[in-house]
Amino acid sequence: MTTAPARIRRDFPGISTRAWEHPADRTALVGLRQLSGFDTLLRTLSGLLQERQHRLMYLATAVRVDERQFKNLHQLRADAVKILDAQRTPEMFVLQQPEVNAFTIGMDRPFIVVTTGLLDLLDHEELRFVVGHELGHALSGHAVYRTMLMHLMRIADGIGWMPVGGWAVRAIVAALMEWSRKSELSGDRAGLLVGQDVEASVRVHMKLAGGSRVDEMSHAAFLTQADDYDRAGDLRDGVLKLLNLELASHPFSVLRAAELRRWIASGEYNRVLDGQYPRREQDKDARISEEIKHAARSYKESFDQSEDPLIRTVRNLGRDVGATVSTVGQEVGETLSKLGKRLRGDSDE
Known about the structure:
Blueprint: H1 23-33, H2 38-49, H3 51-61, E1 63-64, H4 71-83, E2 92-95, E3 102-105, E4 111-115, H5 116-121, H6 124-140, H7 142-159, H8 167-195, H9 198-210, H10 219-231, H11 235-245, H12 253-265, H13 268-273, H14 288-305, H15 309-316, H16 321-324, H17 328-344
Parallel strand pairs: 2-4
Antiparallel strand pairs: 1-2, 3-4
């Protein structure tokens, strides 16, 4: 199997992570990055997590990817780093495990872990998508912020600014999981930007759903399943869909493929390919108020276009969309605003 790219792929010098982050994901990230005292809090959490211990464990129990070990993965990582213009190359480990999985962990220096089950399932270009997906997580700081939010939720009872108990905690968990699902969609977009192969990106999700027998599956039929899922059933099915997703950290494979299709159809993917993307040097000018508007617009579009029976019924009741569709971006933004004031010790707007 060759390690050289099969074709020329476009690089994105100076690209900001905002280019691939889902609006709801990006809203939370912009707010978190603007928090005063953020670095101190992260260092504290990093100590609690014993990040060094995690890395040492993989160093002792897995295989570190380099030019001598898993050379194909080493080259894919190098390609991804070049395409997304990453300032640092994250370490990567291969873990002997039949479960098909890949994840990014660590706060100070995030590293990527892929399982042998994943390597056995995917071909070279599909692996390129996964490596890009995980690099996107590392560059966006998803492992950092996901860990931080989880800890903030756990200590909320002690700091007094967030309501806790019963349904309040359940609502916080649900909002956190919703953000986590949107961060996975962001990772998929990063994977597509690295691979620049739509067919391979969809095959990854087909294999995650149906295994290695991709020759017995249909690209078009697989995407049609997402449309059928959206329209299926009655009000009871709409409620069941919500319950199925409530504590899921990842969107379902069929729906992830459909989300990539929607991102491509929106024109955003092609704009990035054409060099029309936000730059890192502009990140300091990003405003959470604008990101909240983008997130609200994204949720409203999904709400207006959805054929889900529950959402369709609510929409047909004529209720105000702004009151009906509560965006996780706005909720997280308001929470972060309160936290920022606490950290600064002031009360300015």
